[in-house]
Structure to design on (134 residues):
């Protein structure tokens, strides 16, 4: 299913849950499952900075922990308060590659309501996956 206006309201709700005492940069993620459920994600920072988890991975980890499996996801919407819509970091792109279909839409938004559509494969071309271990 393609982008719907309520995805933006939902992802902005998720963003408010961010725990960002260090960067003050709130990121939200709204992960839709193919069976019609959704998971929120927010970035959760840590005084030991590398222990921070991004919003995208938060939503995916929540879904997998609830029993969802690779291939169960329909889309992810991400939001930031920035001049340009959010762009998932390299680590999140790798985790998206692991858990989501290559053609799954990734909707990147910002506080102005701008939206850029991409896909997992577009964000991580020639990405490494379990197939490469065979
Ligand atoms: N962040 C995300 O949540 N997602 C990304 O893809 C990029 C970065 C977070 C991590 C950190 O809490 C803050 O944004 C600044 O890097």
């Amino acid at each position: 299913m393609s982008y719907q206006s309520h995805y933006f309201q939902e992802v902005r709700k998720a963003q408010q849950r961010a725990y960002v005492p260090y960067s003050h940069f709130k990121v939200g993620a709204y992960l839709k499952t193919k069976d019609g459920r959704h998971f929120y994600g927010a970035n959760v920072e840590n005084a030991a900075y590398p222990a921070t988890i991004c919003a995208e991975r938060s939503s995916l980890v929540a879904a997998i922990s609830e029993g969802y499996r690779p291939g169960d996801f329909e889309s992810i919407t991400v939001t930031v308060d920035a001049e340009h819509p959010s762009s998932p970091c390299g680590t999140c792109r790798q985790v998206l590659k692991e858990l989501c279909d290559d053609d799954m839409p990734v909707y990147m938004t910002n506080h102005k309501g701008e939206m850029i559509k991409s896909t997992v494969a577009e964000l991580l071309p020639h990405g490494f996956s379990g197939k490469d271990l065979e």
